[in-house]
Each structure stands twice: as C-alpha cells, then as structure tokens.
Design a protein that fits this description.
The chain is of the alpha+beta class. Helices cover 37% and strands 26% of the residues. It is globular and about 60 Å long. The two termini are 43 Å apart.
Length: 385
C-alpha cells in the first residue's frame, strides 16, 4: 500500500466549528483495495443511489481508468470509514478554445467524445457525517496545486447544498430536470394516457392510428438487453449521422463501457431496456437506469417514420412509461438538458446542478473580457452560463 498523502491546509473555505474526520488519499493503483472498502461501507450504510455505488465506480474505472487519472478520498472517524469519494483529473477539458486543468468529484472528466454524462451523482458517506465530509473534501480540492478549477457535475439540487455552504466561491448552474411522477396517476386512479398533457396525448392517439400491432418488450435478461441495446445503437447512430453528427456510439470506448455496465447492472435490476415495435418496424428503444424506483432515461434510438403522421419519440416514451408504471416504479425521469419533448411528457421537475470552483487565473480574466466584448458587439446573443 502506498503512503497516505499529506493534505494541505487552505484558507478560503468556510470554517466548520469542529470536525472529527480525517482524510486519506489513495492512488488509482490501489483501486482493488479501495473498492473492497467501498463495498463494505455501502453494505453498512445502505443504498445511497446508483451513482454512489461501488458497482458504478468499478465499471467506470474499468472503462476509463486508463484514460482519466483518478484517486480516492476516504474519510475516517475513530478509525472507522465514514465516506469515500472518487476524484478524477479532467482530460482534454476546455473553456471555449482555452485548455484548462480540472478536478472532478465523481465519475467525470472524460473527453467530450467519450463522456458518460452521468446524472444523480452522490457521495457514498454516512448521512450524519456528510456535512463534515464535504467540508474536508472542499478543503482538499481547494488545496490542490496545478489545477485551474474543480467541478461538480450532475448532482441533484439538495446534494449540492453542503458544497455551497462550505465554499462561497462555488458557482452553480441549475438545470430543470423534468420527470413524470407516477404517484400522481395512482392517487387519482386514472390511466396514463389521460394523465398526459394535451399535445403528447394527441400525438400518441394519432400515431396509434398509423402504427398497427404495437407491442412492448421489457428486456431485463442479459441476452434480451444486449439485443435491444444493439438495435438502439443502430437507430441512434442512423438518426444522428443523417443530421451530420457522429452519434455517441461512434466512440468505441463509450460503447464498450455501456456493454460492461449492462452486464453488471441488468442482473441486479438496476438497468433495463424497452423496445416498442409495430407491424411497420421498430418504433424505438430506450435504455433505463433504475435508481431507487426511479427510471432514468439514459439513451434512446428512434425508428424512421418519415412521411407518416407518427411521433416515434413520444410513442416510444409513452409505452416505456406504461411499462415502468406497471412494474411499480415511482417516476420516469427524462433527465437534463430540458427540451420541449421532455416538458410535454413530464408532470413535474427537479433540479440538476453543475458547479465549478475557479482559481484566479489570467486566462479566465481574458476569457471573461473577450465574452463581454462579444456581448457588447452582439447584445441580442445569449451569454454563456
């Protein structure tokens, strides 16, 4: 085992009256050892969410660990492990045209072309120690030399509050995260279609007049999930490449990562695929992450029904929602970023947060000045967040 890193003391963090936690930092070469500790902690404190789990961290390390440098921050009190966090070093990160050196909390920091873009990140920590752990983690991150900023990406709003309390310089960007709450339908005793907004309800009914023999497949075995995933890739790539974009599965690393994730999570019931078919062909495929009775739409592929009075995206989501409702799930989460399609299919929303603590840098000052000039020249153009 390598020596524990000595942690620097920093001055620009909000003081906490007292903290009983001591941090240890373990290198990526100690992944196997740390993941054993992670599983023991998870077993002891219970489910903190899919993206806080050892399984999620391990599959990410298998897929990206050779590309993205990383380390583990562990928190102890009275020689008892209380929390673990993965901290990564960003690869090919930019602010506009300017390269920047970044640290990231959780599974993040990949180059854009390979990015997992995960949401509902969360710390694996005993709840009663969470505020102290965040304070120590913020102190550690702010004390790391040679980096321009550290980032939080895809954290739910409430899970960022401790970071905001302990770091007044943290700048956050809050994005609406639309979802459909099935409990509203259950409480009213109605059906899903009648609970939809007027426009998607009309689109579903109109599409069903065109699509004969619609059927839904819930793929939760390895073989069926891989079969649907393969078709999802074909549909997704065809759609995006027709519009002149490469599509996310043009990245072999990204594709292999999801194959590993599928193999790990599907047998546990934490990932499922839905395929909607008709006599005219596949309407669409949806990949779902199942996180504490919440079905999160990670990716989809839609069939091409050009010239038909059909809305394959709405139909596919509708039947996927019906399948989730029938299986007792609580929500169908359409995830960020927001779009009209997602707003139409949701009945409420939560907030997803991206945050950054920037250290004073001449490059950031120059970028801000350039953006002010650009905004002055083009006053009607929306400034970047």
């Amino acid at each position: 085992m390598t020596a524990v890193e000595t942690l620097p003391t920093v001055q620009n963090t909000v003081a906490l009256a007292s903290t009983s936690l001591k941090l240890e930092v373990r290198s990526q070469s100690e992944s196997s050892y740390v993941l054993q500790l992670w599983r023991q902690l998870e077993h002891r404190i219970g489910d903190r969410g899919l993206l806080a789990s050892a399984d999620w961290a391990e599959v990410w390390i298998e897929g990206y660990g050779d590309l993205v440098p990383h380390r583990f921050v562990l928190a102890y009190s009275n020689n008892v492990l209380r929390g673990i966090c993965l901290v990564t070093e960003g690869v090919k990160q930019f602010d506009g045209p300017v390269p920047i050196k970044t640290l990231h909390v959780g599974t993040a920091g990949e180059p854009d072309a390979d990015s997992v873009y995960a949401e509902y990140q969360r710390l694996m920590v005993e709840p009663e120690y969470e505020s102290e752990f965040v304070w120590e983690l913020v102190s550690y991150l702010n004390g790391q030399r040679g980096f321009d900023q550290w980032n939080l990406e895809g954290f739910a709003g409430p899970d960022v509050e401790a970071f905001k309390r302990h770091d007044p310089d943290l700048v956050v960007n809050e994005l609406p995260n639309p979802y459909f709450d099935f409990n509203i339908v259950r409480q009213k005793g109605g059906d899903l279609l009648s609970a939809l907004q007027k426009e998607p309800r009309r689109q579903v009914r109109r599409s069903l007049e065109v699509l004969d023999g619609v059927s839904t497949e819930w793929a939760d075995s390895l073989d069926s999930a891989m079969d649907v995933f393969s078709e999802l890739i074909e549909l997704h790539q065809a759609r995006w490449q027709a519009d002149g974009f490469p599509g996310v599965y043009s990245s072999e690393r990204f594709t292999r990562y999801h194959e590993r994730l599928l193999a790990r999570l599907v047998p546990q019931g934490k990932m499922a695929f839905v395929r909607v078919r008709s006599l005219k062909g596949t309407v669409g495929c949806v990949q779902l992450l199942i996180d504490r009775k919440r079905a999160c739409v990670y990716q989809c592929g839609r069939g091409n029904f050009a010239g038909e009075k059909c809305s394959p995206g709405v139909v596919c989501d509708y039947f996927a929602m019906e399948a989730c409702l029938a299986r007792g799930l609580d929500a169908y989460d359409l995830m960020s970023p927001e779009s009209q399609h997602k707003r139409n299919l949701s009945n409420t929303a939560t907030t997803m947060v991206w945050g950054a603590h920037r250290h004073p840098r001449l490059k950031f000052f120059a970028l801000n000045q350039a953006r002010k000039v650009k905004q002055w020249i083009n006053p009607n153009q929306e400034p970047k967040p």
